């Protein structure tokens, strides 16, 4: 679980990131990234019903939360990052999800 200070919880923050953020697509996820004027990154994880039933959505979100938590030290601070799971996230193995996450972050120049 991500610590509360590393989570995006307000709807306004999600909407700001969607509207003003940089959209970076990957094979298994899409990331929206915007500056947040804080000294740490905050993450929001989203899995819509397109991903699958509740069990599949929760598995996808759990895997993405673990990747986000472990990547805190490797990413440059001061960003809100909303990660949207794609339908292909469910079939992917953890190491492929992690590799795709870091590929997306390199595209966004956060690594």
How would you spell out the order of helices and strands? HEEEHEH
CATH architecture: 2-Layer Sandwich
Number of helices: 3
- What is the CATH C level class, in words? Alpha Beta
Question: Strand order of the main beta sheet, please?
Answer: 1-2-4-3
Hey, roughly how much beta strand do the residues contain? 15-25%
Proportion of residues in helical segments: 25-40%
Mean pLDDT: 94
CATH topology assignment: Ribosomal Protein S5, domain 2
Q: Could you say which overall geometry the principal axes of the C-alpha atoms support?
A: globular
Radius of gyration: 13 Å
Write up this protein.
It is a single chain. By secondary structure, the protein is an alpha+beta fold. It has one domain (4-106): Ribosomal Protein S5, domain 2. 38% of the residues lie in helices and 21% in strands. It contains 3 helices and 4 strands. It has helices at residues 11-20, 54-71, 94-107; strands at 22-25, 29-35, 42-46, 79-85. A 4-stranded mixed beta sheet has the order 1-2-4-3, with helices on both faces. It is globular, with a radius of gyration of 13 Å.
């Amino acid at each position: 679980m991500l610590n509360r200070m590393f989570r995006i919880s307000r709807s306004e923050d999600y909407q700001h990131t969607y509207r003003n953020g940089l959209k970076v697509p990957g094979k298994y996820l899409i990331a929206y990234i915007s500056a947040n004027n804080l000294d740490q990154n905050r993450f929001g994880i989203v899995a819509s019903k397109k991903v699958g039933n509740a069990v599949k959505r929760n598995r996808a979100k759990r895997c993405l939360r673990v990747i986000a938590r472990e990547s805190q030290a490797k990413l440059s601070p001061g960003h809100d990052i909303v990660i949207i799971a794609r339908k292909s996230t469910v079939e992917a193995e953890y190491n492929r999800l992690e590799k795709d996450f870091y590929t997306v972050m390199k595209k966004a120049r956060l690594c």
